[in-house]
Amino acid sequence: MVMENENFIRSFFSDSQKIIASMPDKDINQIIEVLFCAWKNGNSVFLIGNGGSASTATHMAADLNKTITSEGRHGIRALALSDNIPLVSALTNDDGWENIYSVQLFTHFKPGDLVIAYSVHGGSGSDKAGAWSQNLLKALQYAKDNGGKAIGFAGFDGGAMKQMADICVVVPANSTAQVESFHVVINHLIAFCLKEKIAGSK
Fold first, then answer.
1. Could you tell me the pTM of the whole model?
2. Which of 55, 128, 184, 191 minimizes the number of CB atoms within 10 Å of its CB?
């Protein structure tokens, strides 16, 4: 049993090194620039995800509000739309699970704002509601249709999100654990790069 654990650990870290070597740096850099523009222009960022990806969205919302700040420099107005459980449950009951994020955007979203969605597989398709992240895809489409930007984080082959997002970081992995882990790693990279960029701006 101990040897099996050791083999798994070595394999996990070995796979992680391969993923890092194939990471889409250009897409990550584009997201940093888009978020920097949002900071300068006072735009809002709405973050969404389902399951473990909802916690990733919440974590990044906290980092955009707080971590990127420095003396005399404000953060970005960022909100994770899965956090208000009474609201999410009411929207699920009345409007359907596939609409829980787009209905909230109808209230809050303004031109120039951003929607950032996290999904392991990236959704099954923009033409059918169902269990495969349709609520995320509808929210991304809402951003595109209303003068904003749609940003995605996915894994595997990127799913529908890769095709519809303005920018989509696809973690080159076919493991849920690896994809979710690297979404958090990339979030931290973005947040701390933004912090430096904002601190050095005029």
1. 0.94
2. 128
